[in-house]
Specification:
329 residues; Rossmann fold; 2 domains; 8-stranded mixed beta sheet; 6-stranded parallel beta sheet; 9 helices; 33% helix
């Protein structure tokens, strides 16, 4: 299978590494307009790179395209790749530009249009969702996700990549990562109340922290705190009810369930091995990124299904628009 990876920044190179793990038989071509990124990908990963997307599509005729560029560029690249007969995997879009048009185009072209939602492919999230679904009675949760924005990409300025843009800001990305799995696990969101403002002097034009009080249609309730303020990178989840108490610190070894009989926390270990890259927070592991790529390849080959769709994401992005506007539901 010939696969085009568009965008050779940190995420694009991650996707290439994982695709090579899935199958060394994949023929991978990298696309980036930046010569330095092309050279880095060639040196690190041993792939062939080009700068001209449409010429490469015409000349190389790849079956699949993985789009790992900045979010605001996705819509037009998705369209170009679909028109050139590619099945398309795209990273989080954060905006719904051309969603309807590209969903229709994929249907007309009979091609897969696959959206990343990495946490839905993470084993801890699947475990939490299963426990919630199979626990009698209503549940509450407290969930805090935060990391100081300059620490996201310490090698470059906030202004030089997508989190500096109000339309694709850091808090928006965190909401787009977390809301899909929260909805799958606890139920559709019936109502929420928003509290947000600026707690930092960062050079950004958007609120840097949000607190949401959430009620789900299932009757479950939660407090969701999202920010780009916390100097320690955190992902702390607490789920509790009459018949369940569990916590997760975002790391592979940090999932715990309270045993009512022994009155002690029990560690839940879900991994035979953990793939971890240096330079990332402790809760960033490669396993789920690989899982969703494997699912994409399977869907292209007529097996399995995606955990998340463009249709679902369109609704989530509309909800994030309302949250950012401070509109309670």
């Amino acid at each position: 299978m010939k696969i085009l990876v568009v965008g050779l920044g940190s995420m694009g190179r991650r996707r290439i590494r994982l695709l090579n793990q899935i199958s060394p038989k994949f023929e991978i071509i990298g696309i980036d307009s930046n010569p330095d990124r092309q050279k880095q990908a060639e040196d690190e990963l041993g792939i062939f790179t080009q700068s001209d997307l449409e010429k490469t599509l015409a000349d190389m005729k790849p079956e699949c395209a993985v789009i790992s560029t900045s979010p605001l560029s996705h819509a037009s690249i998705v369209e170009i790749c679909l028109k050139n007969g590619c099945h398309v995997f795209t990273e989080l879009n954060l905006v719904s530009d051309k969603y309807d048009e590209n969903m229709l185009l994929a249907k007309e072209q009979k091609k897969t249009l696959f959206l990343s939602s990495t946490f839905l492919y993470r084993d801890e999230i699947k475990y939490v969702a299963d426990k919630v679904a199979n626990t009698e009675g209503l549940l509450n949760y407290n969930y805090h996700v935060g990391q100081y924005l300059p620490d996201w990409h310490p090698w470059e300025s906030i202004q030089n990549y997508f989190v500096g843009d109000k339309r694709t800001n850091g808090c928006r990305e965190l909401f787009a990562i977390e809301l899909p799995w929260i909805i799958k696990a606890f139920g559709e969101i019936k109502s929420y109340k928003v509290l947000s403002d600026r707690n930092t002097q960062l050079p950004i034009e958007y609120n840097d922290n949000y607190i949401l009080l959430v009620e789900h249609t299932t009757g479950n309730k939660g407090v969701l705190c999202v920010d780009v303020v916390s100097r320690k990178a955190v992902r702390n989840l607490e789920v509790y009810g009459e018949n369940l108490y569990m916590t997760w610190d975002g790391t592979p070894l940090g999932l715990k369930e309270y045993d009512f009989e022994t009155k002690a926390d029990k560690n839940i270990n879900l991994y035979d091995s953990v793939d971890k890259q240096e330079g990332y927070a402790s809760f960033v592991i490669e396993n789920a990124y690989k899982n969703e790529l494997e699912t994409f390849i399977n869907v292209v080959n007529g097996k399995g299904r995606a955990e998340y769709t463009f249709e679902e994401d369109k609704k989530v992005l509309a909800m994030i628009d309302e949250i950012e506007a401070g509109n309670n539901k």
